[in-house]
Amino acid sequence: MSYDDVFRFDPDLADDIHEHPREMLEYFEEALRLYDLPVDVSLSDAHVRIHDLPDNDVLDVAEVPRHENIGRLLGIRGQVQKVSAVKPRIVEATFECQRCGTQTSIPQAGDQLQEPHECQGCERQGPFRLNSSASTWTDHQFARVQQPPERTKGGEGETIDVHLEDDIIQEFDAGDRVTLTGVLDIEEPKGDQTRDFDTTVDGQAVVREESSYEDIDVSEHLDEIEAIAAGEHGDPYNLLVQSINPEHEGDEDVKLAIALQMFGGWSRGGQKRGDSHILLMGDPGCGKSTFLQAVDELAPRSTYASGKGATAAGLTAAAVADDFGDAEWGLEAGALVLADGGVACIDEIDKVNDSVVSSLHDALESQLVRINKAGINATLNARTALLAGGNPEHGRFNPYQPIAQQLDLGPTLMSRFDLMFMVSDSPDEEADREVIDHMMRSRRAAAKKELGENLTEEEQKSIEPEISRETLRAYIAYAKEEVTPYLRETETEAREYLREEFLKLRLANADEEDNPVPVTYRQEEAIERLAEASARVRLSDEVRREDVDRALSLVRKSMEQVGIDPESGQFDADVVETGQSKSQRDRRKQVLAVIEDQNGATVEAVTDIIDMDETKVERDIDSLKQRGQVYEIDGELRKS
Which residues form the MCM C-terminal AAA(+) ATPase domain (predicted)? Predict the structure, then answer.
């Protein structure tokens, strides 16, 4: 029942429900039982549920545990972090005296089972046996609701535990956004009595959000959004580039790619992934993290996590031993699930351990997280774009090795990324001068703004985005909710252009013997996703040739940066697909041939025979050892 309906019927009655919810809901349910109904209709198990409270009574999780809210009916907006298994809970316990057999019923409240003080028959103090079949039961579940990640500014969100009973159990999964109606209560202290009490919520109704962005008021910004999309303020794509991480000078391709990632392609009911995954690579200190932090602030839904020390539950989801007090298992959502419908930003992804990496594979491709453990079988949505930052395996990138090979991620995980970019830190006098000037200008502008001094137009631009944060968040939310672009039959030019350009990519640098398929079909889907995102920027349902061209340009630049074999200077997609380039494969074949021919050659002998760079040959021999193709006995190499 809607609170608004009650208020229109009788405002005083609505106020009583708000201030004294337990008593009033009990009266409502008693009225149901007294209602005159046909013989074959019973409402004995029915409950009255109040939802849709006024906006001023719907609180964020952090606002709930206040003394003035105790005992009141509240609306709580948040995201489900964890849910427990469903268990039976006793409502009225019937005990049987083991001396005389007299049965006594005791209404139950709180967490501890209350036994009779004495038998009503023989008046002895037990012993008593619980008669489970004669007792009254209900189903019960705990849930932990947290402040949504994008509202916590990168910190750990406040949480509150909720008790759910009977018909409102299993109404949501971990990761879902919900608005709960419930009564704030205090928990009984455990151990010594203190003056401080923890709070819980007695859940009365649950409404799962149908829209992904209900907390964003798009109507307030709609006129400006439409003007930007129509090009009234300039090229919308340039405006987006200038609005992402404005304090970081350069890397326009990275900024455009991130902008398209936030708008996203269109997911066809879970059948085809619409979200693009992007990996930013670079030496430490070159600004990768600033991009992740910027997206965490701009994306309508986002989470931020570090790969260092992350667990599978921290990135995807897992069945974990819960801490609701019963030492059972619960389902806990991780970063990808919590950012469902948005962007998950994971820094230092190269530090993620192997067990966590394996859990990412399926989540990134199918956008589902499957949990089968401890009796919990669940599938959670992870319709999330991943923006990850990674550092080289040995601290800094070696310009003489393929870039993809220096990231300790493995080919399978790397193949899940649509785009991979180097955030470079290569010395360049002219470029470095511009970057330093921009850094000094933005820092000076920030100081003048803090002190209330007037800023020049150039200083203003160095710290203020072209599109404000609030407008951009609403822009993205509106485009993702309302615009569903795809390559339609009528867009013949765009479809033919995509097909022919992809075939050029696929066949370029192909070698029938060693590299027959330099580009896989994954790139074609990546291009379509990015082209759809480009159409969404214009708020268009049609993908045009210009969108395809924009997507192709980003994919080419990504492939050139990551897939270049530094020894040959040519593109080699196998660098990404297999982790080694054609030059390396050829040299390792020679090494294996020499070892097999010599049947006991030393490293020095192999190097002399091949007559190549000693460091490269030694590195190839180490790699062959790790792969189990070569072993060493008494300083001599032998083929396995």
Answer: 236-439
State whether 496 and 620 are in the same domain. no
Q: Are residues 482 and 599 in the same domain?
A: no
Given a cut of 80, whether residue 565 has pLDDT beyond it is no
How far apart, in whole angstroms, are the C-alpha atoms of residue 437 and residue 439? 6
How confident is the model over 335-355, as pLDDT tens digits? 888 888 899 999 888 888 777
Mention every residue, 6+ apart, whose C-beta is less than 8 A from residue 258: 244, 278, 291, 294, 295, 387
40-70 residue pLDDT tens: 777 777 888 888 898 888 898 988 988 888 9
Q: How many Cβ atoms from other residues are within 10 Å of residue 609's Cβ?
A: 17
Residues 504 and 628 in one domain: no
Whether residue 575 has pLDDT greater than 70: no
> 625 and 481, same structural domain?
no
Q: How many domains does the chain have?
A: 3
Residue 300 lies in a domain: yes
Least confident span in 114-123, 401-410, 466-475: 401-410
| Residues 394, 266 within the same domain | yes
Q: How far is CA 511 from the centre of its chain?
A: 40
Provide the 10 A C-beta neighbour count for residue 240. Answer: 24
Domain that holds residue 41: 1-50
Q: CB within 8 A of 175, min separation 6: which ones?
A: 79, 80, 317, 333, 337, 338, 340, 380, 381, 382
Q: How far is the C-alpha of 532 from the C-alpha of 494, rounded, in Å?
A: 12
On the question of pLDDT at 553 being above 70, the answer is yes
Helix axes 236-243, 222-229, angle to 10 degrees: 120
pLDDT of amino acid 598: 73
Dist CA 118 CA 124 (whole Å): 5
Using DSSP's 3-state secondary structure scheme, residue 553 falls into helix
Report if residue 27 sits inside a domain: yes
480: left (phi over 0), alpha (psi -120 to 50) or beta: alpha
Q: Which residue has the tokens 């109904």?
A: 37
| Residue 134, helix vs strand vs coil | coil
Convert the pLDDT of each residue in 435-467 to its tens digit: 677 667 777 777 877 777 777 766 666 667 789
Indicate whether 263 and 365 sit together in one domain: yes
Q: Nearest-CA neighbor of 102 among 114, 94, 110?
A: 94
Q: What is 291-335 written as a DSSP string?
A: HHHHHHHHSSSEEEEESTT--HHHHSEEEEE--SSS--EEEEE-H
